[in-house]
Amino acid sequence: MTADIPRDDAKPVWSCLNDVTILDVSQLLPGPHACALLRQLGADVVKIEPPLTGDASRMLGEGVFAQFNRGKRSVALDLKAPADRERFLALVRGADAVVEGFRPGVMARLGIGYDTLARINPRVVLCSISGYGQDGPNATRPGHDLNFLAEAGYWATPAQVDDVVSRPRVRLADYAAAMHAALALSVAVMSARTNGRGQHLDVSIHDTTLAWTAPATWASRAQGSASSDAPWVMPDNDLFETADGRHLALGILEDKFWMTLGDALGDAFPALRDPRFAWRSGRQRLKREVSDLLKSMFASRTLVDWMHALRGFDLPVSPLLGPNELFADPHVRARGVTREIDGALAVRFPVKFSLGLPDGDAHVPRLGEHDA
Fold first, then answer.
1. Residues near 282 by Cβ (< 8 Å), separated by ≥ 6?
2. Please, what is the Cα angle at 263 between 258 and 266, to 5 degrees?
3. CB 51 within 8 A of CB 78
């Protein structure tokens, strides 16, 4: 069936993924994003969607669905129906991988578990992305991004002198899973092509998030309740509110930058030249004083004033950009990671390959558009 569907010719000619076919049975973010990354690198992705509703992200708006599904082809199949299940298995015969995001056991109950797929196609790779993995005490529990972050210790590591618990602005756990899934799929598919043996990848959103949070959380065990005592909590490496209610990020780690800050602003704010603060050890020992100094200082002028005053110096200082400011930023425009198609955002693969990486097919498939 895959041979009857027109293929995208705008592929990187050098990519080992150009003739790889992936069946994307997943929905929302982790699985579709993993498949989207591989599509950008040359893979052909056929999206398998429920006939009536399609991927749940379609209900969140065309732009949301488009973000993770451009260039894929949509085949509408009811995997609970015997006839459609047979059509799906026919696709598996010519596929390199299947990506699914059901809870553990659902694929087997549908009659399309890994054992079944492997009998049909021994080199097929099944990538199962779930909240807590295919086994373990929490395997069947429901969850979303916030749950996985909470239970992976995201908030267990202090980050500021006056630490606060706040919601992350992007779905970090889902992106962690998507990136690990794409990497694992690349290796597993290429290995299967070499040795003829596919395998089942168990991608846990919780596990992949834990792999990021565990090192800092491990170190945090010794801090007890005095979170600000942690050596990585730095009073001069933080976010500060300005007089107009905006914020800036000051990223000082090295003493040379603290000295430069004193050179830039020491006449107006003499405390910046206090010899007790000249070295990292002193600023760490006097965290509260340094924090209060910087908070008071930055609250005295607007964000525009601070950027005008500091941009001419070699300092790691940045404004917290709003949406319009972000896409108008000269550096963002120069790097070209984002582009606009029919009023919707499209994000290019954010690594530049010297051999070139074409944008590929930007078409957003209609539900079941490639059923024929």
1. 276
2. 95
3. yes
Pairing of strands 21-24, 97-100: parallel
3-state helix, strand and coil shares in percent for the chain, rounded to the nearest 5? 45, 15, 45
| Closest alpha carbon to 77 in 110, 113, 31, 30 | 110
Sequence-distant (≥ 6) Cβ neighbours of residue 272 within 8 angstroms: 258, 261, 262, 265, 266, 293, 297
Q: How far apart are CA 55 and CA 26, in angstroms?
A: 8
CA distance 218 to 198: 35
Q: Which of 24, 26, 25, 20 is nearest to 205 (CA)?
A: 26
Structure tokens at 237: 């490496």
142/66 Cα distance (integer angstroms): 26
Element (H, E) at 100: strand 97-100
R_g (Cα) of the chain, nearest Å: 25
DSSP string across 175-210 = HHHHHHHHHHHHHHHHHHHHHS---EEEEEHHHHHH
Q: At what angle do helices 30-40 and 62-69 cross, to 10 degrees?
A: 50
**In the chain, pLDDT over 70 holds for what percent of residues?**
97
Q: Is the pLDDT of residue 6 over 70?
A: no
Cα 73 from Cα 371, distance rounded (Å): 9
The angle subtended at Cα 203 by Cα 201 and Cα 206, nearest 5°, is 160
Separation of alpha carbons 227 and 230, rounded Å = 6
The owner of tokens 């908070």 is 295
Give the number of other Cβ atoms within 10 Å of residue 14's Cβ: 12
d(CA 162, CA 151): 22
CA distance 273 to 275: 6
Three-class DSSP category at 48 = strand
The owner of tokens 């894929």 is 72
Tokens found for residue 118 = 């492997």
What tokens were used for 73? 């082809």
First to last CA, the chain: 9
The mean pLDDT value for 138-150 works out to 97
CB-facing half-sphere around the CA of 320: CA atoms within 13 A: 14
What are the pLDDT digits (tens) for 158-196?
A: 999 999 899 999 999 999 999 999 999 999 999 999 999
